[in-house]
Amino acid sequence: MKLSTWQEIRAKKFSPEQLREIDEEIERELVEMDLRALREAAGLTQDELAARVEITQSQLSKLERREDHRVSTLRRYVEALGGHLEIVAVIGSKRVRLAEG
User: 3-class DSSP state for residue 92?
Assistant: First the structure.
């Protein structure tokens, strides 16, 4: 029995238009996740993550409520969750990963 890749299964099950709509919905969901939801999805309390970022719980609470963040702060936050931060510019249909520096 031949195994199929996820891309092959997607292509068989969905039309190109459906795939575009699915991908757009996924992007919307990802974009709308705030820092608190990201931390909660990782199963961490503010105290636990604050210890990893090496700040106080009250500082972490303020950070999660802010609307404007420094890239270095976001990087530390995401790395403390076990991830890495990528910044992508979307211009028209092009997605460009911005280099650090």
Answer: coil
Q: Looking up tokens 């068989």, which residue turns up?
A: 12
- 48 falls in which pLDDT band (50, 70, 90)? very high
**Average pLDDT of every residue of the chain:** 88
Lowest mean pLDDT among 11-20, 55-64, 77-86: 11-20
Select 34-101's CATH number: 3.20.20.30, 1.10.260.40, 3.60.10.10, 2.40.10.330. 1.10.260.40
Phi/psi at 71 (5° precision): -60, -40
Domain boundary assignment for the chain: 1-32, 34-101
Torsion over CA: 9, 13, 17, 19 (sign): negative
Residue type, position 46, single letter: Q
